[in-house]
Design goal:
InterPro entries: Vps53 (IPR039766), Vps53_N (IPR007234). It holds the Pfam family Vps53_N. Keywords: Coiled coil. One of its GO terms (biological process) is retrograde transport, endosome to Golgi. This protein is mainly alpha-helical. It has 3 domains: about 110 residues; about 130 residues, no CATH class; about 80 residues, no CATH class. It contains 16 helices and no strands. α1 runs antiparallel to α4, α4 crosses α6 and α6 runs antiparallel to α7. The radius of gyration is 60 Å and the shape is elongated. The relative contact order is 0.04.
Length: about 450
């Protein structure tokens, strides 16, 4: 609006006589003063021109002022237009954002539905796959049990049992319940047949790879199957030992205890070198089980014999048995380091602690003989106090021998007793002999 007004003012100033671009000043002067007489009007014309110039200056000032106001109004109009356009764009973006958010929500809802459908479909496929494994596995196991194909059974049975656990929450379904009962009957039949075949194989001595497969099958069945077979196998391996070293046999007494241990060392060596140990799965710990049962059996046999023949126990024989037992247990501890359920340290040795009174009686006899000898030497004058050895006390040479003998007895006793508390009682008893020694010689 202001721009139009400015344009009109400028157009009004474009007077032909003054504002033409091609105006000729000389022609304009000649027009104003055509004759010399007209020069008399020069002042009037000059005044008119000056007035016109003043008028033009005023108009120009008004025009400049009007132009400045128009510029400010234009800037404000442009800013307002820009803000309006920005608001329109923001509103458009907001509408697009709302539309996009709606689309995203719809897509998310669709994706969640598809995700749930995918999970359900995957679970259904897995369940059908597991059911197929279960059905085919149960059918195959029935056939393989009849054919005694223990290698195939060992490979398939763990998988079938693991798959069956996945259906524990579906046991109220009749079909699943029937399959579970059928598999349980097959397991019972397999357990009876397997133990029978294992016993027959070991009794016949025909060991081959099928025995390893049988043991793998036994590991997959209930723990009772493995435990029963291990018990039978160990009893079978130690049956000869029970006969050879029965309580009525001459080699069963503790004076020949080294023969017992030698027999088992040979048995264990044969068990490992013949490859029999590798037949059993490592987690069966058959070597440790065999050794543990032998040690328990030996300890019980020794306990019964020594209790029944207590009067026949002698110190030398008892010490002989204990020393060989210590060496045997040391060998076992090196071969089978201690672990949960299997610790062979003092497993047989402790049975002798109940008979340490034999040691006390023997050592007391040695001390009594020593004291009697000292008394005899003192009475017949063979031994006399050594006065030069001290200014106020006169020790006997036998007193030093007495302490050396006690030291020797305690050292020997510490090697023969497995229980420190038992050894402590012996130490107090032996030192109680000192007052008797003093009283006897004085």
């Amino acid at each position: 609006m202001n721009e139009v007004k400015v344009r009109k003012v400028i157009d009004g100033m474009n007077k032909p006589e003054l504002c033409r671009a091609d105006m000729d000043v000389i022609d304009e002067i000649n027009t104003l003063f055509p004759t010399e007489q007209s020069l008399s009007q020069l002042d009037t014309v000059m005044q008119s021109i000056e007035n016109e110039l003043v008028s033009l200056d005023c108009e120009l000032a008004d025009l400049v002022e009007t132009h400045g106001t128009a510029r400010d109004d234009g800037d404000r109009a442009l800013a307002h237009a820009a803000m309006s356009e920005l608001e329109q764009r923001i509103e458009a973006i907001h509408l697009k954002t709302q539309s996009s958010e709606t689309v995203v929500q719809e897509m998310t809802r669709d994706i969640k539905q598809l995700d749930v459908a995918k999970r359900n479909l995957t679970a259904s496929i897995k369940t059908l796959h597991h059911l197929h494994i279960l059905l085919t596995g149960v059918h195959s196991l029935g056939t393989w049990i009849e054919q005694r194909r223990y290698g195939d059974i060992a490979s398939q049975l763990p998988a079938v049992l693991n798959v069956l656990q996945l259906f524990n929450s579906y046991m109220d379904v009749e079909q699943i319940k029937n399959i579970s009962e059928q598999l349980e009957r097959l397991k019972q039949k397999l357990a009876i047949q397997l133990v029978t075949d294992l016993k027959h194989t070991f009794q016949a001595g025909s060991l081959n790879s099928s025995v390893t497969d049988m043991c793998r099958v036994a590991s997959s069945l209930d723990n009772g199957v493995r435990s029963d077979f291990c018990k039978w196998f160990i009893e079978h391996q130690l049956s000869e030992y029970a006969v050879l070293y029965g309580e009525s046999e001459s080699i069963a007494w503790i004076d020949k205890i080294d023969m017992r241990y030698r027999w088992f060392v040979q048995k264990l060596t044969e068990f490992e070198r013949s490859g029999m140990a590798k037949i059993f799965p490592p987690d069966w710990e058959m070597g440790r089980r065999l050794t543990l049962e032998y040690c328990n059996m030996t300890r019980e046999m020794l306990e019964r014999m020594m209790r029944r023949r207590r009067a026949e126990l002698e110190f030398k024989v008892l010490a002989h048995a204990i020393n060989h037992t210590i060496m045997f247990e040391s060998l076992l501890c090196k071969r089978f380091p201690a672990k949960e359920g299997f610790n062979f340290d003092k497993i047989i040795w402790r049975v002798f602690d109940n008979y340490m009174d034999v040691l006390v009686v023997a050592q007391k006899k040695n001390l009594d003989n020593f004291i009697e000898g000292c008394i005899t030497k003192i009475r017949n004058g063979t031994e006399r106090p050594t006065r030069e050895s001290a200014p106020s006390a006169y020790p006997l040479p036998s007193s030093a021998d007495m302490f050396l003998l006690l030291k020797k007895i305690i050292a020997e006793s510490s090697k023969l007793s497995s229980n420190p508390s038992v050894l402590l009682k012996f130490v107090f008893f032996f030192f109680s002999m000192l007052p008797r020694f003093i009283i006897s010689i004085f």
